[in-house]
Specification:
18% of the residues lie in helices and 32% in strands. With 524 residues, it is α+β, with helices and mostly antiparallel strands. It folds into two domains: 1-23 and 462-524, Nuclear Transport Factor 2, Chain: A, CATH 3.10.450; 159-454, Purple Acid Phosphatase, chain A, domain 2, CATH 3.60.21.10. The longest helix is centred in the N-terminal third of the chain and has 20 residues, at 2-21. Bound molecules: fe (ii) ion. Fe (ii) ion binds next to loops.
């Protein structure tokens, strides 16, 4: 028996070694078109808070267009199963979402939304949605406390965007396991890759499942939520907000005119949480956010948007946006800015005043802390020289790692923790409020695991064999290799390769024998 076991162990070990040396082609999962189509039963149930999360919450869901009348029922939940005796019924607003002419959407569905305005603070409610005949399960959530100093936590995730069902599912579920009492979740843009693509939204809803219906979402759109709706828009280089965005979320309509539901805020206990849309009309938002930050006495100010003011990744810098918004954040002493877009992790801070950060007096105090994070499976390289040249210090960074964040606010203290997709603590810090002084900063990154980079993690890029490299660069002289993925598509195994020079970027599909099967050229 022992001998058998040894032989078996040897085989497993051998298999593991070979396995890690050989490249394994990536094959995108296939979904039938009908997979994401609506039925008469409610699906895509998503919960959002209103401007005052102690009293207001909205629920939105989808059905086939045959369901024209829909309701939400809401009751204070109790341990006794017949809590529903006390339920209130609200008739939902039903709108038909006709995306039959939008490429990649090609669906007609009805969206239903119901808002409850007179909820009691700090109370667990149960709700269900349906047409009076077909109903969802009863779903529970809790309203905010009316005591501003009560402790609460929330989750924050960066770009979901790619491999949503394959890989974001584990991340969001681990996030929920780590912070089951979280009050809401911030999605900092790029929830999907192709704004209007039904399959990706379906993946997003299935990956999150009942987390989306029980943990209120606070989403802002990223650049990938903007794509042309039709040929006319494509020809004129116009990109429109995801056709699904407004039908499927019911968000506070307190943003600037024309940007409702992509720019908004809520006051969760002692914290003003503001969502901005870094894709359009950023000057109009500068004026609005200045006002929204002026007319509040909330202790904590947290802002989220997609394009970072301090980029995490190589070759990226949103200088114009930084020049426009950072002075406003400085003026109002915004505590925390949560961003995405860069497919890596970076956390750092600016100084609280004109002094440089390493000035002795201000060493333990801080201005705004800026974070970029990524939750989906696409990964970019970090900016090699950190935040040099931007008068900001990057204190912690990661590559090639799916992360979620848990932020806990308890009175004068904000604790920030970042976790990997398997629940390891990766980064942490605290901010402590001091009367008439900048926040004290407590560095806690030492509590986390070792720094993660492309060099010490499972390779993200595949290796292009030398013979194929020769074939490609014989044809495309002066280009540099940018990305390589070993893939299997429609039964063909080969390499998806991106090469570029200063004039163009070329995407190629080359099979293992060296035949170029597909070529897409983008000129800059
Ligand atoms: Fe992005």
């Amino acid at each position: 028996m022992r001998r058998v076991l040894l032989v078996f162990t040897a085989i497993v070990a051998n298999f593991t070694i070979c396995h890690s040396q050989e490249q394994r082609p990536y094959q995108e999962p296939f979904f039938e078109d009908k997979w994401s189509k609506p039925s008469e039963h409610p699906d895509r149930i998503v919960l959002n808070f209103g401007e005052n999360p102690a009293t207001t919450a909205s629920v939105t869901w989808r059905t086939s267009p045959t369901i024209n009348e829909a309701f939400a029922e809401m009751a204070i939940a109790t341990g006794a199963p017949k809590f529903w005796r006390n339920a209130k019924t609200v008739t939902a607003k039903t709108t038909t979402f006709d995306a039959s002419a939008i490429e990649t959407a090609e669906v007609v569905s009805n969206y239903h939304s119901a808002t409850f305005n007179d909820l009691q603070p700090n109370t667990t409610y149960a709700y269900r949605v349906g047409d009076g005949n077909r109903w969802s399960e009863w779903i529970q959530f809790k309203t905010a406390s009316d005591n501003p100093e009560d402790s609460f936590s929330f989750l924050y995730v960066g770009d979901t965007q790619n491999f949503i069902l394959e890989l974001w599912s584990r991340l969001i579920r681990e996030g929920y396991k780590t912070a089951p009492d979280a009050s809401f979740i911030i999605h900092a843009g790029d929830l999907v890759n192709n704004a209007h693509r039904e399959q990706e939204w379906e993946e997003w809803f299935i990956a999150g499942g009942w987390i989306h219906s029980s943990l209120p979402s606070f989403p802002v759109p990223g650049n990938h939520e903007y794509r042309p709706l039709n040929d006319e828009e494509a020809k004129n280089k116009i990109r429109s907000l995801s056709a699904q965005w407004k039908p499927q979320f019911t968000l506070p309509e307190n943003g600037p005119e024309g940007l409702e539901e992509s720019v908004y805020y809520m006051d969760y206990q002692n914290t003003r949480v503001i969502g901005l849309n870094s894709n359009e009309e950023t000057e109009k938002q500068a004026k609005w956010v200045d006002e929204v930050l002026s007319n509040t006495s909330q202790k904590w100010k947290v802002i989220t948007f997609h394009h970072p003011l301090f980029s995490a990744s190589e070759g990226r810098d949103n200088e114009e946006l930084r020049n426009l918004w950072k002075p406003i954040f400085d003026k109002h002493e915004v505590d925390l800015v949560l961003q995405g877009h860069d497919h890596s992790y970076a956390r750092g801070r600016v100084s609280p005043g004109d002094n440089v950060l390493d000035g002795v007096n201000l060493r333990d105090k801080t201005g705004t802390v800026y974070v970029v994070s990524v939750s989906g499976g696409k990964m970019y390289k970090l900016r090699p020289n950190a935040w040099e040249g931007w008068e900001a210090n990057r204190n912690r960074a990661a590559e090639n790692t799916q992360l979620f964040q848990v932020i806990t606010i308890e009175g004068d203290k904000l604790s920030f923790e970042s976790y990997t997709a398997i629940g390891e603590l990766y980064d942490a810090f605290d901010l402590v409020k001091k009367p008439n002084e900048p926040n004290s900063f407590v560095e806690r990154k030492g509590e986390g695991i070792n720094a993660r980079r492309f060099g010490n993690t499972i390779p993200y890029q595949d290796t292009l064999p030398e013979n194929l490299k020769e074939i490609i660069f014989k044809q495309y002289k002066g280009h540099q290799l940018n990305r390589v993925s070993f893939v299997k598509e429609d039964g063909v195994t080969g390499y998806r390769v991106r090469i570029r020079n200063d004039k163009q970027s070329v995407n190629l599909f080359i099979d293992e024998s060296g035949k170029i099967l597909d070529e897409d050229i983008y000129t800059f």
